[in-house]
Specification:
By secondary structure, the protein is α+β, with helices and mostly antiparallel strands. The protein has helices at residues 2-12, 56-59, 83-98, 118-130, 141-148, 189-204, 210-220, 251-275, 278-287, 301-309, 322-331, 334-340, and strands at residues 16-20, 24-29, 33-39, 42-45, 51-54, 69-72, 75-76, 79-80, 107-112, 135-140, 159-164, 169-175, 178-185, 206-207, 231-238, 244-250, 289-292, 313-315.
Length: 343
Amino acid sequence: MRWLRGSLLSLLSHDLAIDLGTANSLVFRKGVGIVVREPSIVAVNQKTGRVEAVGGRAKAMLGRTPGNIVLVRPMKDGVIADFEYTEEMLASFIKRAHNRSFGLRPRIVIGIPSGITQVEKRAVRDSAMNAKAAEAYLVEQSMMAAIGAGLPIADPIGSMVVDIGGGTTDVAVISMAGIVCSKTVRVAGNEMDEAVRQYIKRKYNLLIGERTAEEIKIKIGSAFPFVKEQTMKIKGRDLVEGVPKSITIADEEIREALDEPVATIIEAVRVALEQTPPELAADIVDRGIVLTGGVALLNGLDRRLREETGLPVSIADDPLTSVVMGTSKVLVDFDLLRRVSLD
């Protein structure tokens, strides 16, 4: 009955596919495309409890707000850390997706990490329903990433996808529209940013902000040596003198800082490979591993993984949107949604 009701509602509402990520959230509107691509951040006025900004406007305030304005990341490690502000954020994204809020009751499909608990799943669904969704369906991000990357998930062929987002890394072996084995670790982009911050603090007694750490990771971060040394000038606060200071750092240093989180991700891939049935493992030897998520773009990560596993490794055409594009495909294929939904 719920599936029939969902089919009828889909004809009457503006359906949305949502990749509700720890670092960034993307919203796909049926018949339109990706309409929201925003950081998963909420700016809150502590005096009034009012939400001052959501998404990009909130991130622009990072490190620049007065004491009464705090920045909240309502998603942590791929799951809801703050129920109230997740609802506020979802409601804001839904409103932006349609340029209005009155009378909206969209059907929503949300991608979530594979390893979360039933309580965490219920929290995501409740947040969507409280944000005025007519129906909310949950699907696994690794499955959506595989669909978005164009893998033949419905065939009796083994496909391995490694989705590395902001809060979690999801590794999954998929066959016949089902996840045969998977491994989720709560180490991904945010953990890498923090590793860079701590390394700079420890080696140079220099305190840098989250935005600077992320910029360093993107510009000169790597998992495998560059052909030519890369350097970057950064600014922060000297912890000894207490004054602003700038230094120049090299890619080798940042590679050292990132080594532990990168090694954790590679170990998760190894564990998943060890659990893979022999016939599907043979398929992976032939077809290789596909990387999705923002961290898939970390320089040399594909090469490092290739050398560590001995398997072919490729990066999805648009790794940043793989999950939301996969979710959008099940949004318009109700039979596929029935097969992959966690309900």
